[in-house]
Amino acid sequence: MRKLILIITFLFLIGCAASSHILVGEAREPINPSNVKIYLDYPEEYEKIALIDAGSNFVLNDPEILFTWQSKMDKAMERLKIESAQLGANGILIVNTDNKIHTSVSSDGQGRSNTSTHTEKFVKAIAIYVEKD
Q1: Low-confidence ranges of the chain (pLDDT < 50)
Q2: pLDDT value at position 14?
Q3: What is the CA radius of gyration of the chain?
Q4: CA–CA separation, 78 vs 65, rounded Å?
Q5: Which phi and psi (to 5°) does residue 130 adopt?
Q6: pLDDT of residue 110
Q7: DSSP string of 26-83, one letter each residue
Q8: For the chain, what are the domain ranges?
Q9: Residue 49 C-beta-side C-alpha neighbours within 13 Å
Q10: Could you tell me the sign of the dihedral formed by the alpha carbons of 62, 65, 69, 70, in that order?
Q11: What angle do CA 132, 129, 48 make, to 5 degrees?
C-alpha cells in the first residue's frame, strides 16, 4: 500500500503542468522568451492577452530539482516568460506570488506512518503586449 501511495504521489507531482493560461485577448506571433519584460505596475498603453500562472514544481518536460525559494521563484518566472512568449506577449504583469507546501501522509495500517513534504513557488500574472515607442 505504501508503494502505491508513493507512486500516485510521484505521478501527481510529475504530471502537473508547469504553466497554463486563459486567453482574454488575441494571441500574437510567438516571440523569444528573453524579450518578455516583467512589470510590477501597468504600463501606459498595453493590450491584455491572457491570464497566466506558473509553478516551480518538478515536471518531466522541464526536470529540475530546486531547493531554495529563490531558485523556485526564478524557475516560475522563467516558465511565465516562456508561456507568455508563446502567446506573443512581450510583457508580464505580476499579480500574485505564493509559497505552497504539499504534505503527504501514509500509514502501513499497523500504527506506523510516514510524512513527506515538498515546497513550490507559484506565480500568477497577466500576459500583455506593450507597443514599443
Answers
A1: 11, 13-15
A2: 46
A3: 18
A4: 15
A5: -110, 125
A6: 86
A7: -------GGGPEEESS--SS-EEEEEEEEE---BTTB-----SHHHHHHHHHHHHHHH
A8: 2-129
A9: 23
A10: negative
A11: 145
